[in-house]
Amino acid sequence: MPWPYPADGAATFVRSQLDKISAGEEIHHWVLVLKGGDGEAIGNIHFRPYADGAKGNRGFWLAEPYWRRGLMTEAIAAVNDFAFFTLGLDHFFVCNAATNEASRRVKQKTGAEFVGFIELLHHGGQSKSEKWIVRRDAWLRGRSGTPGGKPREI
To answer: In the CATH scheme, what is the code of domain 9-149?
Structure first.
């Protein structure tokens, strides 16, 4: 993502993702909005189930005013359910800048297991990154917060 975020950044991002989908790349996207809110987008999650995992299969972004509320953890739990229950995946990879403590906490709270450090360019020029694996069996053992263990709605 370019930083600082340009005025046309959201439109450019959406166009680029639609182009990838049109070209046949399988990408799932979710726009995050507040329950009971006005429908304004506050974040985004994308999931590329069949990417090679070198850059990670999932990415997310949340507007700063909504940080530290558990919103991304809740949304990621629903995407994990989608990956394992709907797509039937066994595992997938996720990455974050090594300095991004909030992203690390989301991974820890949603069943990811630290694999190691890799080089992956992030906005602001950071390249030291953490790589994590999310495994179906670990997710199923650790998931909570759903009545009867049913998948969350996304």
So the answer is: 3.40.630.30
The pair of three-digit structure tokens given for residue 128, joined into one six-digit string: 């030291």
| 18 phi and psi angles, rounded to 5 deg | -65, -35
Structure tokens at 66: 């909504």
Under DSSP, the state recorded for 45 is E
Cα separation of 44 and 79, whole Å? 11
Going by C-beta distance under 8 Å and a sequence separation of 6 or more, which residues neighbour residue 141? none
Question: Do 123 and 1 form a contact (C-beta atoms < 8 A)?
Answer: yes
The predicted-structure confidence for 45-67, as pLDDT tens digits, reads as follows 999 998 888 889 999 999 999 99
Model-level pTM? Answer: 0.84
Q: Which amino acid is located at 87 in the chain?
A: L
